[in-house]
Amino acid sequence: MPRFTGKRIFITGAGSGIGLRTAEKFADEGASAIYLVEYIQDRLDLVASEVEKRGSLAIPMCFDLGDPDNCRSAMSRALSDAPLDVLICNAAAVAEERFLDISYESWRRQIDVNLNAYFVLAQEAARSMAKRKSGVILFTASIDAQGHSLRFTPYCVSKAGEVSLMKSMAVELGRSQVRVNSVSPGPADTQQSTDLVGEELMKKWRKHGFPEVPMNRLASPDDIANAFLFLASDDASYITGHDLVVDGGHTADVYEIPYE
Fold first, then answer.
1. Which of 56, 142, 158, 182 is catalytic?
2. Full-model pTM
């Protein structure tokens, strides 16, 4: 039986990569309605079409998550229709910059999208879920939350904040039967990664592997989407406050001798 028959889902960053595949999989498993947040209209149109093809109602929302008023308005609209069963905060802003060159505007943008929007959306959803004593809130974090990735300071800091926020919420909301978890992908084959490194390098990694990871490949959107669907399902009914690392063994591999 489909695990999400009749469920109402809200996904940010739904227009490509992990968010797109997650939306498709929820639709495949019977979700009745999926709210899709994306700031690029063409991508939003694509995911809405894919969701509708699979039999779920798509409710597209095109706005910038960097504005908290937009987040509150979108969540208010969704909750006015009917209660939400699952919220997945997945969108991310990222820029590659040396620490000494980071502008305050760049810092603020990444914190606003990657952390503040997560807080605003999750708090609004949690208020509704706590009253019903039912619901699941999930974040896309990152293995970058565990330390530092060179030239990505605001991103790493925001992801560490997400994991901390997730754990705080899980403890605060546990007695209300609202579960809160996160998924931390390792290096992944997504549109955002391609935007950062370029298509040629991504093609090389797809063809020849990604040796930084013990499994010698990048995570696929399916790898991460499957983790989200597990955590959202009743199969994970006693899991809360957990950051599920999906990285092909990357963070387990502490040190290798740098042979040429």
1. 142
2. 0.97
